[in-house]
Amino acid sequence: MEIVSTMGSGSLGREMDLQTLVSELEGHLGEIVDANFHGTAMVTVRLEENGPAYTIYRTGTFQIRGAETEELLTESFRRFKEVLREIGVDASETEFRQVTSVFMEDLGREVNLEALAIALGLEHTEYEPEQFPGLIYRPTQYEVTLLIFASGKIIIGGTTDRQHAKSAIQHLQEELSFLDTA
Fold it and tell me: What is the pLDDT of residues 97-127, one digit of tens each?
């Protein structure tokens, strides 16, 4: 199982003027900043090309998405605080925590999604191939969401705990083995 992305969330503890913030970032970092405003309430910036995305809200809360590991997420947060300090924004009281990770697993086999949806229980699955090519499964005993594709690839979201994600996959494999013997 590999981790493909992780996300964290935090708060600067005060409201931000996003236009001014982006102007200061551009003045300090130059052309590197990629800013995408979503109205006046939030902006998403990248401090480096192909780097993590920092979504900053006017309220001072923020999210960091796209770091491939927990270590890179922590490093991205440190970089964010450093850049804020360099442009004169006091970030010493900034709160931050990892919120979720996205894992990927490959079962190494194809899966009949229609049969799997029935076997797992229609109350726990969503499968509408005309709208989305995968089966969405929310096992009741795990706080995760599994996106299962006919190719056997699975995306696991909703947790930061690799062992929890592995347990959910083991549960799914047990269900698949019952399906195979039926």
Answer: 999 999 999 999 999 999 999 999 989 999 9
136 close to 146: Cβ distance less than 8 angstroms = yes
Task: Give helix 113-120 / helix 162-181 axis angle, nearest 10°.
Answer: 100
CA distance 163 to 122: 26
Q: How far apart are CA 9 and CA 64, in angstroms?
A: 6
Residues 58-105 have pLDDT tens digits of 999 999 999 988 899 999 999 999 999 999 998 888 889 999 999 999
- Return the biggest CA–CA distance within the chain: 65
Cα 102 from Cα 100, distance rounded (Å) = 7
DSSP 35-82: EEEETTTEEEEESSTT--EEEEETTSEEEEEEESSHHHHHHHHHHHHH
Q: Which of 40, 4, 28 is nearest to 80 (CA)?
A: 28
